[in-house]
Amino acid sequence: MELLEGKTALVTGGGRGLGEALCRRLSNEGCNITVTDLAHEKARSVADSLPRSLGLKCDVTDYAQCVEAVEATIERFGKLDILVANAGILLSGAISEMDALDWKKVIEVNLLGSFHVMKACAPYFIKKKSGCIIQINSKSGKKGSYKNSAYASSKFGGIGLVQSLALELAPYGVRVNAICPGNLMNSPLWREGENCLVNQYARNRGLTVEQTLAQYLAQIPMGRSCEYDDVANVMVFLASDLSSYVTGQAINVTGGYEMR
Ligand code: NAD
Predict the structure, then answer these.
(1) 138-156: per-residue pLDDT in tens?
(2) Measured from the CB, is residue 7 less than 6 Å from ligand 1?
(3) pLDDT digits (tens, 9 = 90+) for 101-135
(4) Closest atom of ligand 1 to CA, residue 13
(5) Strand 174-181 vs strand 8-11: parallel, antiparallel, or unpaired?
(6) 10: Cβ below 6 Å to ligand 1?
(7) Which atom of ligand 1 is nearest to the CA of 87?
(8) Ligand 1, atom nearest to 226 Cα
């Protein structure tokens, strides 16, 4: 029997990257899965490749769309057990160069978006007196990030949100935790497109892409990039009864880079 057999999960930002990998793992562990994303076609195409699945458009900056996604999930599968608040963006830059609207956009997607989707699930979880909320945070939720203040602020805020909701929802049997991955250096966010992270970080530091990758790797005690499975393994633990006494935690998955 798989660890999450018969559970129903909803993932935001599930159309590509880490979110897609987490959807696939939840499905392999026996979940019904609602794949949601700002990009509807991507959500639908991931869902189409999985059994017992639903693909929906959900822009997490729009609370009404989060409520619709939760309602559609309950209508389709009869229940919801696990929320993975994964949707996130990263726009970096020095404070003197960064546009305030870009800064605000990062906060709106990463922090307000997490709040919206958690708020959309909370009344249902409170009523059924169970549920599991997992936020995909970052090592940048624990430590400042060079020329990356919007992202780090959104992720620090995310841990405050997780800890506060853990306190608020514990009496109802609802657990709320975060996962703080290190750099997923092989992910599309890092590698694909002109504005991918490695290009942004190289520009911010005045280094080449190769120098930037080497600099990041050199900081990781375990000497390798974080991979999707590293994060998915912790997600399965947090979503399962193996972690029934764990709430309000922000678990580092960083190969030893971050220890607080
Ligand atoms: P990604 O850019 O590959 O995927 C993000 C997905 O979120 C995309 O499918 C995108 O369409 C969707 N999205 C963007 N804005 C949205 C919105 N407003 N509403 C709904 N969906 C939206 O990124 P990723 O690397 O897969 O990152 C996923 C999560 O993991 C993010 O929260 C990110 O901060 C976190 N994270 C990533 C890394 C990394 O190195 N890639 C490291 C640590 C944490």
Answers:
(1) 999 999 999 999 999 999 9
(2) no
(3) 999 999 999 999 999 999 999 999 999 999 999 99
(4) 7
(5) unpaired
(6) no
(7) 7
(8) 40
Contact 139, 159 (CB under 8 A): no
In the chain, % of residues over pLDDT 90: 97
Three-class SS state of 110: helix
Q: Which amino acid, 220?
A: I
Compute how many other C-beta atoms are within 10 angstroms of the C-beta atom of residue 28: 16
Cα angle at 182 between 20 and 34, to 5 degrees? 20
SS3 state at 177: strand
Would the pTM count as exceeding 0.85? yes
Q: Is the model's pLDDT at 65 over the cut of 80?
A: yes
Verify whether ligand 1 is closer than 6 Å to residue 114 (CB atom).
no
**Structure-token pair, residue 47:** 């869902």
Ligand 1 lined by 117 (C-beta under 6 Å): no
What's the CA gap between 238 and 220, in Å, rounded? 24
**How many whole angstroms separate alpha carbon 41 and alpha carbon 35?**
11
What residues act catalytically?
151
Average pLDDT over residues 207-236: 96
Q: Choose among 225, 240, 176, 228: nearest CA to 19.
A: 228
